[in-house]
Amino acid sequence: MTRMMATLLCVTILAASTIEVSRAGGTAADYEMANRYQRSAEQGNAAAQFYLGALHSAGIGRPQSDVEAFRWFLRAAEQGHSEAQLILSALYTIGRGTARSDTNAYRWASVVAASAKIEETRAGAQQLLDVLARRMPEDDIVEAKKTIDLQQTPTDQTRPTELGKNLSEDRRMTPSPADIDRRVQSLDEIISRNPRDAEAYYRRGQIYSQKGEWTLANEDFVQAGTLNPNDAEALNNSCFTGAVIGSLNPALLECNEALRLRPNYADALDSRGLINLKLGQYDRALADYDAALRAKPKLASALYGRGKAKLMKGNLKGGTADIEAAEIIDPNIPEEFARYGLP
What we know:
Layout: H1 3-16, H2 28-42, H3 46-58, H4 66-77, H5 82-94, H6 102-115, H7 119-135, H8 138-146, H9 167-170, H10 177-193, H11 198-210, H12 214-227, H13 232-245, H14 248-261, H15 266-279, H16 282-295, H17 300-312, H18 316-329, H19 333-339
């Protein structure tokens, strides 16, 4: 059995039990393997995100961390990775790396049972659904079924890592206003039943952001980050929406915390760059945008923001070049920044 196959088997066992796992970090080869997966995962590769979650779960090449494992499985699941979706459902079932939530577990298992291409994966999801159905109140099952479309298979609801700034890439479908209202209402109902459902706040924040209702989005992302303080993406999105509405100092603290949790997190560096740009701290903005672009060289918002900062410092040639490069990647980027209060 290969090391990776052994890792995946270990993850499956973890998802079905509460066994403590080794905290050993592994060999130099393990670290190099994990680094390769990390680079690919950060670029959005769902398979790499899945394997990185497995490595964190087993403590191979990375420090063992249930929270980090859950985060990477979630990112893979949101891109339609069936095995990650099944593991995510199991992790919600036992509350490992996240708060226990039978409703979230049921939703993810339902997605897998309906859409997975591998028969064994569908069968595993159905077995999990049977277990959940025996212990869940009927009302909770009805609620889960009503909101299955909020899960990712993938759709317009994929978690944007740089919310708003590349929303056109994340929205593969444009929902109708009625569909958006229905989703908000469903999330309202979930939150009213469980005010500590951090993921529901996060999802509702996404929708408000898509509608340009930045204040409501910020309130939801702040709540999501408060309920799950290890969620760097929620912290980044509360930072970003705070920057948009002008709540700059609280937003700066949230970006700093996101970067403490995930050093070199390109989207958080980009968000902090926006804050520093608005604060008139142009040298700091340039440093943030430079760091973001080292991690994501084609990040249009960072290129455009860096161009703006260069122009403010009198670097006409460099600023113009960055702005033109950003507009090639995303022709709508000037309109985006105008909506952020930086025409």
